[in-house]
Amino acid sequence: MTVAAPARRTRVPRWDPLTVGVDIGGTKILAGVVDSHGSVVEVQRRPTTGHDVALVEDTIVDLVQGFQQQYDVAAVGVGAAGFVDASRSTVMFSPHLAWRDEPLRDRLTARMSIPVVVDNDANTTALGESRFGAGVGHRFVLCITLGTGIGGAIVLDGRVYRGANGMAGEFGHMQVVPDGHRCPCGNRGCWEQYASGNALEREARELVVARSPMAHALRELCGDDPDQLSGPQVTAAAQAGDPISVELIADVGRWLGTGVAGLVAAFDPSAVIIGGGVSDAGELLLAPTRDSMVRHLVGRGYRAEPPVVPAVLGPQAGFIGAADMARSAARRSRRADRRRDRRGRWFGVRDEL
Amino acid sequence: MTVAAPARRTRVPRWDPLTVGVDIGGTKILAGVVDSHGSVVEVQRRPTTGHDVALVEDTIVDLVQGFQQQYDVAAVGVGAAGFVDASRSTVMFSPHLAWRDEPLRDRLTARMSIPVVVDNDANTTALGESRFGAGVGHRFVLCITLGTGIGGAIVLDGRVYRGANGMAGEFGHMQVVPDGHRCPCGNRGCWEQYASGNALEREARELVVARSPMAHALRELCGDDPDQLSGPQVTAAAQAGDPISVELIADVGRWLGTGVAGLVAAFDPSAVIIGGGVSDAGELLLAPTRDSMVRHLVGRGYRAEPPVVPAVLGPQAGFIGAADMARSAARRSRRADRRRDRRGRWFGVRDEL
């Protein structure tokens, strides 16, 4: 009898496919072909044609089929604004797209016969930034997106942490002021009522309404009509040196930093990434954020403070992350197929797709 | 040439050793022999003899050697009140034990020639409760220990999540009231200033100081000397039906619930476990906690709310969790040894011990 040498694992070069990522926003759909280093091979942009989910599906299918004529696409990842269920197949509720219970994954898979994953756009964006952007080299990353509200996500060891119901990362609705400003979520004093684009606008408009002489630059910008004043205008005014606009953005930064200090106490992350429209203010926002974080951080002086850094991938982060999720899913699917082939039965990790 | 059949993994019964867990508290050291189901085979209790780390070490060595005469002990896990470094070898700072930079693991290993792990007692307690107590069946568990302050820990898939510096879970120092009560950590408005044993005592004492007629039961309990009034007395009075004591505990519960709602928004846990001395109040505390959590939870009505449950293992949770950490470490160490034996070189996971 011949005794076989003990089996050794040999290193096979990793299967390294191209995947497509799609980011469905309220106004535009951004899609790209992405490789495993997060490099964008090609990008396409289309308007979000109304709120009809069928039209959005048509657009996605059309984009993917266009890419498939040029590239060998292994899977598609879709990030959508809204709540996505834990199995990542259904957009349960999307306020911006006016969707409810849309089984996006199954419908796209049926039309394209290619694996599809669906996730919340905050998660796809966070994954893109963590793995290929500002989070490179950090194990435990908190991503905070300052838009009209606060979008958040947690990326641990290169994977999005989703929690029990797929709803982790809703940092914006942690209460920071008891009985504070009313929030559309129904509560009062939510963090995003103090640190967000909406908060910046509200505060700026109050100064215009009060006809504050301090706010003459802001009043000029909106022709004394507070409803015309927007967050980006305040940011532009601050960057041009208007002192009250600088102060308004610093105020958002201070609220942001206080909340970040709390999240750092709870999560002890390796890095905190700040993205979204409000972060266009750059250091006008981030310097007060860091000051406030350090001032409110437990154990300060005895601990390393995590870097608080701006997102670097811009609007592409969403589809880059979605493409990366699709790549993981395609790999799992392939492993499952291979196991089934060899042993003749099904081990079933495919339902993770 | 004979072709060997493809190697298959065969299921070997898992190595299933007994381990010892040690919980070093400010007043007592609790140690036990624990099996892999979390069952306590034997338990011993000793006083914490002063703050001299050498005396504590003597006690631990003595306890372990006692156990070793009867049982085959594979490893020792130690939970200590204080900050433990990320490699889990050194107690960096322990206010209760008055230790600084004590390399507890190395010193114990040197004296006992058996693998030793050291961790923060909040982590060991949380692990014990999550794996063998109130958290059984739940993947993502938040543990909140209400003592003088708030101790916290995060257990994901049966493992303690420690974060970048081993400092995750400091929930008690998230700010919940801007410019609120001063906290010994140096900040203001920390959660543990509102939801803790200290908070309960402070509020009860204020009523005694104010000679509130509402507080006649409390005034009797302490002989009109507010400094003599303790949290457990308030709890006992509440359980005996004193309305103001019931209200004081409900107040702590409401603050607890508001903060839990924020943590649920951020983590989306499968369960929240409430332990510690204040939780002896049972439903007098937990019913208002749940009410307040639901009222402040984002997406309520659209999401499953996690159960908020009392800890069930009591003071044994700490050493049961420490023993479980030791078991994982012993298994890793054994795997590393076996790999080294077979291939003749060292793969070095032992430094995780």
Describe it for me?
The structure is a homodimer of 353-residue chains. With 353 residues, the first copy, chain A, is an alpha/beta fold. Chain A folds into two domains: 18-127 and 314-352, Nucleotidyltransferase, domain 5 (2-Layer Sandwich), CATH 3.30.420; 136-310, 2-Layer Sandwich (Nucleotidyltransferase, domain 5). Helices cover 38% and strands 20% of the residues of chain A. The first copy, chain A, is built from nine helices and 13 strands. Chain A has helices at residues 53-70, 104-112, 121-132, 197-209, 216-221, 231-239, 243-267, 283-296, 317-343, and strands at residues 18-24, 28-34, 40-47, 73-80, 83-84, 91-94, 99-102, 116-120, 140-146, 150-156, 159-161, 271-275, 308-310. In chain A, α1 packs across α2 and α4 packs antiparallel against α7. Chain A starts with 17 loop residues before the first strand and ends in a 10-residue tail after the last helix. The interface between A and B is large, with 53 and 54 residues.
Q: In CATH, what is the homologous superfamily of the largest domain in chain A?
A: ATPase, nucleotide binding domain
What is the H/E order of chain A?
Answer: EEEHEEEEHEHEEEHHHHEHEH
Distance between the termini of chain A: 45 Å
Secondary structure: helix percent of chain A: 25-40%
Number of domains of chain A: 2
CATH topology of the largest domain in chain A: Nucleotidyltransferase, domain 5
- Largest interface, C-beta closer than 8 angstroms, per-chain residues: A-B, 53 and 54 residues
CATH architectural group of the largest domain in chain A: 2-Layer Sandwich
Structural class of chain A: alpha/beta
- Compute the CA-based radius of gyration of chain A: 23 Å
Q: For this entry, what is the oligomeric state of its chains? A: homodimer
Q: pLDDT under 50 segments of chain A (min length 5)?
A: 346-353
What is the number of E strands of chain A? 13
Query: What is the overall pLDDT average of chain A?
Result: 89
> Total helix count of chain A?
9
CATH C-level class of the largest domain in chain A is Alpha Beta
Task: Give the overall silhouette of chain A.
Answer: globular
- Main β-sheet, spatial strand arrangement of chain A: 3-2-1-4-8
Q: What characterizes the major β-sheet of chain A?
A: 5 strands, mixed
The percent range for strand residues of chain A is 15-25%
